[in-house]
């Protein structure tokens, strides 16, 4: 099986890698590029722990081949904070204790950011439907929803 | 496994037709990658069709829209004109999976994956959608209900790809709707799905109807007697009763963990009736 040569923009940086043709983008990120923020929960697109954006579109990186990213732009949780400064969503997740074990958190943050980029003022119902593809088995979802609402409110004030 | 991402449909067809081993088309990948990673399939070749520009577009055509096979569900949901013309089809597509899945999954992938419970398929069948298929022997058009034959099986020959789906123009006073039953409110597989598409005349009498059911047989069913129950009526209670009875009568479901035969048969009638009521409201407004 010959490897595929890929050039992709990852969190703004042009990155080159070789991957197996049947290797997922999630495995490329974690095992080849050292970006271990995206997690493998289910590996079948059900849990959302591996959420990233591909050309601005929220996707499960476990359902994308590494080879497909050629010429495309990938953004992961690693690109969310600016240096030491956390994104408002990250800060609000901490303030509201919207996590326990943390496995699902990068996926929730990436998905929540994709929502707020599209809709800066989502209703609680819209937040819950949008995040239906992200599963958390520790906290339940109320704290997560409240953290997203609070972050959205702060971001709207600019 | 080889991965190819050709830039034209002709090269995609040639790659698939010439492959001696097991070849698969990759559109959104939300079914294919699950099967690949789970070890259920061992492809020799995967042909990614998302680099084929013509397959990534939604193009107006004769008052309707041609939806490319690589257009993700999310893009269809963001297209106000398609949503306005065929609200039932778009709402069915938007029921597939999570936001993450919507970012990748395609309507044509949903069709060619050939699950009897596919959400977009009953809506497309009710809409009279036509698939354009390209293969080694050229192009052919066929109604979407002729694509799937049983779970995972299609009528597509070796080397054939569905290039696009045509959702045609529709007469005034037309409406469509899709409803499904799932045990929760989001992110589940249809236990029963029902798509209804009707056209009324100026007096509000139904002059054309198509009714399709999902997850109640080995493939999505186009139910002629259910449509006949509506044609010539104003969709009054008696007509809706006949529709529900005809829909239930057409079911030949299996029992499984998500629903019993009896439940599916009953719910098919209930959903057909409710979908028809929504289609009627939409038809009156259009």
Overall pLDDT score of chain A: 97
CATH architecture of the domain at 174-284 in chain B: 2-Layer Sandwich
Strand content of chain B is: 25-35%
Biggest sheet architecture of chain B: 5 strands, antiparallel
- State the secondary-structure class of chain A: alpha+beta
Most strands sheet of chain A: 5 strands, mixed
What does this entry look like structurally?
- The complex is a heterodimer of chains A (158) and B (286).
- Chain A is α+β, with helices and mostly antiparallel strands and 158 residues long.
- Chain A has helices spanning 25-32, 88-95, 105-118, 124-130, 142-157; strands at residues 4-10, 13-19, 51-54, 57-60, 73-75.
- Chain A folds into two domains: 4-76, Ubiquitin-like (UB roll) (Roll), CATH 3.10.20; 88-156, [2Fe-2S]-binding domain (DNA polymerase, domain 1, Orthogonal Bundle).
- Chain A contains five helices and five strands, in the order E-E-H-E-E-E-H-H-H-H.
- Chain A has a five-stranded mixed sheet, sandwiched between helices.
- In chain A, a hairpin with a 2-residue loop joins strand 1 (4-10) and strand 2.
- Chain A is globular.
- The mean pLDDT of chain B is 97.
- Among the domains of chain B are: 1-47, 2-Layer Sandwich (Uridine Diphospho-n-acetylenolpyruvylglucosamine Reductase, domain 2); 174-284, Enolase-like, domain 1 (2-Layer Sandwich).
- In chain B, helix 5 (87-94) packs antiparallel against helix 8 and helix 9 packs antiparallel against helix 10 (237-250).
- Chain B is α+β, with helices and mostly antiparallel strands and 286 residues long.
- The relative contact order of chain B is 0.12.
- Chain B contains eleven helices and 14 strands.
Main features:
heterodimer; A: 158 residues; alpha+beta; Ubiquitin-like (UB roll); DNA polymerase, domain 1; 5-stranded mixed β-sheet; globular; B: 286 residues; Uridine Diphospho-n-acetylenolpyruvylglucosamine Reductase, domain 2; Enolase-like, domain 1; 5-stranded antiparallel β-sheet; 14 strands; 35% helix; iron (chain A); 2Fe-2S (chain A); 2 iron, 2 sulfur cluster binding (chain A)
């Amino acid at each position: 099986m010959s490897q595929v040569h890929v050039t992709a923009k990852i969190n703004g940086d042009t990155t080159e890698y070789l991957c197996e043709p049947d290797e997922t983008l999630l495995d490329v990120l974690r095992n080849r590029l050292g970006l271990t923020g995206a997690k493998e929960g289910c590996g079948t697109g059900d849990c959302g722990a591996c959420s990233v954006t591909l050309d601005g579109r929220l996707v499960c990186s476990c359902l994308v081949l590494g080879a497909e990213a050629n010429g495309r732009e990938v953004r992961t949780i690693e690109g969310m904070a600016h240096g030491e400064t956390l994104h408002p969503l990250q800060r609000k997740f901490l303030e509201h204790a919207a996590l326990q074990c943390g496995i699902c958190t990068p996926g929730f943050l990436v998905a929540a950011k994709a929502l707020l980029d599209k809709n800066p003022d989502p209703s609680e119902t819209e937040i819950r439907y949008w995040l239906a593809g992200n599963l958390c088995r520790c906290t339940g979802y109320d704290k997560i929803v409240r953290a997203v609402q609070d972050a959205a409110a702060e971001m709207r004030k600019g | 496994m080889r991965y190819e991402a050709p830039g034209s449909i002709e090269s995609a067809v040639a790659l698939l037709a010439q492959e001696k081993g097991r070849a698969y088309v990759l559109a959104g990948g939300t079914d294919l990658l699950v099967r690949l990673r789970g070890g259920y399939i061992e492809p020799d070749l995967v042909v990614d069709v998302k680099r084929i520009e013509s397959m990534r577009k939604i193009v107006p055509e004769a008052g309707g829209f041609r939806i490319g096979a690589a257009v993700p569900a999310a893009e269809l949901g963001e297209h106000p004109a398609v949503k306005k013309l065929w609200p039932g089809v778009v709402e069915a597509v938007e029921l597939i999976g999570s936001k993450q899945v919507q970012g990748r999954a395609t309507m044509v992938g949903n069709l060619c994956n050939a699950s009897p419970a596919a959400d977009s398929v009953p809506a497309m069948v009710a809409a009279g959608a036509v698939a354009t298929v390209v293969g080694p022997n050229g192009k052919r058009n066929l109604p979407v209900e002729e694509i799937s034959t049983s779970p995972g099986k299609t009528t597509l020959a070796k080397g054939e790809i569905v290039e696009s789906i045509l959702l045609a123009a529709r007469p005034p006073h037309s409406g469509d709707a899709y409803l499904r039953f799932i045990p929760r409110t989001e992110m589940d597989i249809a236990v029963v799905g029902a798509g209804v598409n009707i056209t009324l005349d100026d007096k509000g009498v139904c002059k054309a109807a198509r009714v399709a059911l999902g997850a109640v047989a080995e493939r999505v069913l186009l139910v002629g007697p259910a449509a006949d129950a509506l044609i010539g009526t104003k969709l009054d209670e008696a007509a809706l009763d006949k529709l529900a009875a005809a829909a239930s009568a057409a079911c030949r479901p299996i029992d499984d963990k998500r629903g019993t035969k009896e439940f599916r048969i009953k719910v098919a009638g209930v959903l057909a009736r409710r979908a028809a009521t929504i289609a009627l409201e939409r038809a009156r407004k259009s």
